[in-house]
Design brief:
CATH topology of the largest domain in chain C: Four Helix Bundle (Hemerythrin (Met), subunit A)
Structural class of chain B: mainly alpha
Largest sheet of chain B: 2 strands, antiparallel
Helix content of chain B: over 70%
Distance between the termini of chain C: 60 Å
Strand content of chain B: under 5%
Number of helices of chain C: 6
Oligomer: heterotetramer
Shape of chain B: globular
Number of strands of chain B: 6
CATH architecture of the largest domain in chain C: Up-down Bundle
Radius of gyration of chain B: 31 Å
Largest sheet of chain C: none
Chains: A mainly alpha, B mainly alpha, C mainly alpha, D mainly alpha
Strand content of chain C: under 5%
Radius of gyration of chain C: 21 Å
Distance between the termini of chain B: 101 Å
Number of strands of chain C: 0
Number of domains of chain C: 2
Largest interface: C-D, 87 and 74 residues
Amino acid sequence: MDILTLFVVVPVLTVFALIFTKDLKQSRVVALIGMAVQLAMSINLVFAYLKERAVNDSIMLFTKDAMWFETFNIHYSIGVDAISVLMILLTSTVVFAGIFISWKINDLPKEFFISLIILSTGVFGFFISLDMFTMFVFYEIAVIPMYLLIGIWGSGPKEDSAMKLTLMLMGASALLSVGIFGIYFNSGADGGPLTFNILEIAQVNIPLEAQKLFFPLVFVGFAVLGALFPFHTWSPSGHASAPTAVSMLHAGVLMKLGGYGVFRIAMYLLPEGALHWNDFFLVLAAIGVVYGGMGAIMQKDLKYINAYASVSHLGLVLFALLMINKVSWTGAIIQSLSHGLLTALFFALIGMVYGRTHTRDIAKLGGLMKILPFIGAVYVITGLAYLGLPGFSGFVAEMNIFVGAFQHDDTFRRVLTVLVVSSIVVTAVYILRMIGKIMMGPLEYPKGVEMPTAAWYEKVGLAILMIPVVMIGVMPFGVTEMIKESIQPFLERLL
Amino acid sequence: MDFSYTVYILLIPLALFLILGFGSKKIKPAISGWIGSLGLGIAFILSYYTAFQYFTHGKVNDVYQTFVYKYTWISFTDKLHIDMGVLIDPISVMMLVVVSTISFMVHLYSRGYMKGDDGYTRFFAFLGLFSFSMFGLVLATNIFQMYIFWELVGVSSFLLIGYYYTKPSAVSAAKKAFIVTRFADLGFLLGILLLSYFTGTFDFQVLNDPEGAIITQGVAQSFMGLSVITWALMMIFIGGAGKSAMFPLHIWLPDAMEGPTPVSALIHAATMVVAGVYLVARMFPLFYFSDDGFALQLVAYVGGFSSLFAAIIALTQYDIKRVLAFSTMSQIGYMMLALGVSKYEGHEGLGYMASMFHLFTHAMFKALLFLGAGSVIHAIHSNDMRDMGNLKKYMPVTHVVFLIAALSISGFPGFAGFFSKDEILAAAFENNMLLYIIGVFVAGLTAFYMFRLYFNIFWGKETKYDHTPHESPASMTIPMIFLAFMSIFAGYIHFSEYISADRMPFEAHLDITLAIVATTVGLIGIVLAYIFYKKPTNLADKMVAAFGSFYQWTYRKFYIDEIYMFVTKKIIFARMAAPMAWFDKNVVDATMIGIGNSTVKTSEKIKGIQSGKFQDYAMSFIGGAVVIAIIVFYIWTK
Amino acid sequence: MERIVFYILALIIVVFAIASVSSRKILRAVIYLLFVLMGISGIYFMVDYSFLGAIQLAVYGGGVIVLFIFSVLLVHHVELELEVTPLRKKLIAGAVVLTGLGISLWAILTFPFQQAAAGRTIEVSDIGHKLLSVDAGGFILPFEVISVLLFAVMIGAIVIAKGKKLNK
Amino acid sequence: MIEGISIYEILTLSTVVFFIGVYGFFTRENLITILMSIELILNASALNFVVINTYLYPDFLQGTVFSIFIIAMAAAETALAIAIIINLYKLVNSVEVKDTDTLKY
């Protein structure tokens, strides 16, 4: 078994093992073991990647190819570059932390962990695929368990939110599949066979008209998942209703599939289309950044605040990707990682607060730092990291994006950049408003609830997420160098 | 010379922060106070050692050299990269001395002041974080590193202002401070982006090299008649103005007094708030040479206006910390003014030297004033000067040191403030008469409000106290005594030998004429305050009545806060954010839901077609067949 | 002469067909249907297919119609009036049917049929030979299939109709 | 062959009967009457077989034979259908289409 396929096999085996578990205790241990293996493999993959990269300078490493469906030339084709490696690491970190956060899930624990792990299987598969069709299949695997996870284990108007989320993502998938088939049927433009393989298609000159036609489809198809304005509305309600671990995984990882797909498929395979549509989507992304922030200011539900904040921060990812230069792309990738970790942290913390107080209304909470010192401290740190404090990953990401975006000469991009930079103030406003209300000020929480301080598993879960945030923030050089090397071939297509 | 050990000045407070922060539950308060003070003591000694080394051996050919130790932290492009490191030159060494002195004194003082507080260890951890960030800011080798530490300083300020986090006013003050400075930092960041794009570097040495390409050749692009660099500098100055509480970004500073008093002394009097001055001084050559110092003019006028504005407000405030806060703002305006009127070479760079000189002396006496005020507050648990009176009887040490500081800030001859203020006025006199007059007037006002404060606290009629006020413990008085010593003798340092715009020592003389003018004005202020407030009289009330609505305006700080509240609450929140939220809910989301609902409705409508009646099916079938037949025949016969 | 007879027959067929599908009294409808079937058998006789005409009369007139009548009598009161079909449905059905009729007639009337000369009269024996012929073009297999089918139907009809009475 | 009558007229007649049957099939609400409409349709088609056989291919017998089969089938079908109808009547006490909607959405 090669090093990458294991990333799909291990979760599947974990799921099989979970089927035979009896109660919460057993299932969480099994899930934990499975995901611990996964995390260990991810860390190992980083080192293996670095080692291999030193001697091998092809775009993708550890490639493997097996015919899957001959008629349409669909392959199980896998391989990774630095970006996928980092995304895989992010995913396994978040899933691993998510299991700690769901330590006490009492409702159908076995089924919960099974769905969660199936979802993560899809994500892992997505990140290792080099074949658009396989990628799409994994994408769907990742999206569908979400419906069950929200619909069954959620809170509030869960069925509604689950339906909205699933339908909007399915709608996006429909666009996406049209786009992918569009690329597929144009992949023979230079006389070769039709293919789904990304690397092969990149060698083909797809006709300009086809590029112009299919780019928006593929872009929007992926960007809906990345909460592009105005297709972001599934995210607030979906996150608000989802159980904690699912919010973490969804905002932390699943939404990253959007940016990743845009980067890997839309912009790489349809470069001229990307340039043609660049201005339009750039404006949408920039609006999304400010708009998400403004939306977050007015929210009263903690999860809604975070969801709108995600709209803002992921808008930044798309914005950076559309800025098309090395620095901003590096920023986009780091922002994906950083936002993944930070938003997972936030959702975990909100889940802890909610689990104790049974409310997420900021008007009903106040001064919790006094009785929940650990959670309060981590909350404040996370908030500060979220608003781009140096020393945490968010700063590195944002500065890369801003400096990169500013490298363009034209006024249009400059103005948009200024607009987007101004979001740092907006972010500060809503983050401080939230922290100031719920963690500081006079103590206030619903009567009659127990407020135990953080349990060990909660602390571990938070620590797992916090460590990489600080690592990227303090020592960004390793990560940025890794990413820069890998985006070079992708960037060259667009210049 | 090797100054690479200065990096430890940076790392010790960081280590303190980490140790105390992670161990805040486990380390006993008494120990954490000692750990903090000890650490800062080492940094203090190292800083003085550095200063000694640098100013004795740092010259080559009579020019102070710059020493840089750095490594690349993030590289954006080949040219643009953020370095982390330390830069040793006269002003950074001077700032090291200032920051380490004040920080060390505040650490010592806090051991007494914070005794018995819940978050004692947390407090020292935050102080460590602040000291680390401030040292980092001072030692920054490039503008981006400065920005990074600039942000960290802002955050430590946020954490320390909000130290009493259960107090709503403290929380909102902390938020206000952070958001206002963040807004200013937005300007700073945009300035950095602009500057770095056109010059291709972040590095201070490259940017500031007076013989370098950036200054001699400039940048081709211009916007509205000014070169892009000037625009960038003005944006950067917005950042500086935000941190240094210049008008109109000063609104956070008075509120920031909600923090514990040692914090106000450290952050909001001596160190962080002068970061803006330091920033302009750091980039002085660029400010001076681009567009003939247009940006620098702006600095001068903003500084002059702020100093006047704040001095007027300070006259009417009753909260002793707020008086000191406005005084700080006024004095920083002074420093800005001095920088703004300065020129570059030799004696013409007097303003630059004066500004740094004043920064130095001001740090000492203003910190002392705050610590003194803290001592008073500690004794009687109130900030309001109307609750105080005749405290000289109970707190002799505090009284004396406070008097020294007040004399110093008022420019009484022989005290430190006298010398530095005189240099500023001399520099202004040579270059800009208007600013000189403002400066002199502000000097008078300063003397007046300082002694108003002094007489109200230590003289006047005795108020009834709940319990007899007592002198603060030695842990608090010793740092004050040290600072009092500095407040007197710091003025005798020959600053011009060490710090000058072009790095070459020059001779600065006391201008007797100007000194007499300034002193006279200062004395008038003191005498007036003496008449008004020494004994309880109704003169002050008469003055208030005479000024009428102007007094009200002043007392309400010219309603700047209200304007800000109006803009944020009524315009940004109510007119922008709320409609956006509404739009999101009722337009964007409603569209998406509408698509879903209309699908459901359509299917409700058309599900009757699938009626389950075979007759209907047959009818559709035949109907369809007929239609197809028509089409086929139509095509066929065509 | 024959033309007139044909037109009369045609008129009977069409009129009673319409009456049969629109009458509100079910027994009458069955009787109208009988007239239609008899008219069609008349046409068989006119084209000299006497055997077929006879079968038509025997099977339809004698068998099927009787079956209908029995079933009607079993499940209805004789005087029961059928429910009125909604006018809308009638109109739609009428429109579909008329369009279909129009297009079919147009197709038939414009198609140039090659009318052959008058052939020989078909004897019953011919039909018998053909039905039981095992040569090429013989119909022995369908014939047997039909007979099996009829047998099966007979059994099936008995089984189903016998059934179990559920509503006591 | 009928003197003076062309194939067109007979085909017209059968077509008309066919569509009357179709109309009845569409509009009738009673199972028995629907069955009767089907009889009309079947008869019309049987007539077509015969007529085309006679007018166009008088030397062959296929049309006739098919007509016989159609009649046989029709009889069988009627018998079976009526059996079902009667059974249904026992079950739901009605032979109206509207009452037999258990499988409708």
